Every structure is written in structure tokens, then in C-alpha cells.
Amino acid sequence: MSDQPADDAMLRRAQESIDDAKAAAADVVEPEEDTLVDEGAPVADHAEPADGPAPAA
Questions:
Q1: pLDDT per position as a tens digit, 2-55
Q2: CA atoms of 48 and 57, how far apart (whole Å)
Q3: DSSP assigned state of 4
Q4: What pLDDT does 18 receive?
Q5: What is the pLDDT of residue 17?
Q6: What is the end-to-end Cα distance of the chain in Å, rounded?
Q7: How far apart are CA 47 and CA 53, in angstroms?
Q8: Distance CA 4, CA 11 (A)
Q9: Among 21, 42, 23, 19, which Cα is nearest to 11's?
Q10: One-letter-per-residue 3-state SS of 12-49
């Protein structure tokens, strides 16, 4: 005997969960890339590692 009604109900709940997740993802606001970078941060050109050079292989 098949559990067709139970399978249909499970598939319907799964699809509703997917739809809810998609709706929630659409509400997410990502920050602009420029707001992620601190333009005032100091940048070291040609900086050496603080613990010295890497050991020879």
C-alpha cells in the first residue's frame, strides 16, 4: 500500500520550507564593498614578517 497522501503532505511542507528560506534570503541586505574596507587603515609596503624570514627548505 502506498502512503501517497503522507508523501504529498511531506513534499508540500518541504516546499513551504524552501519558499520560506528563499523569502528570508531575499530580505538580507549585504553591505557595500566600500563599507567593508577601512580606507584610513595604515598599509605597509614591502613589509617583512614580524617573526623574520621563512626558514630555508
A1: 678 889 999 999 999 999 999 999 988 877 776 666 677 777 777 666 777 778
A2: 19
A3: H
A4: 96
A5: 97
A6: 68
A7: 11
A8: 10
A9: 19
A10: HHHHHHHHHHHHHHHCCCCCCHHHHCCCCCCCCCCCCC
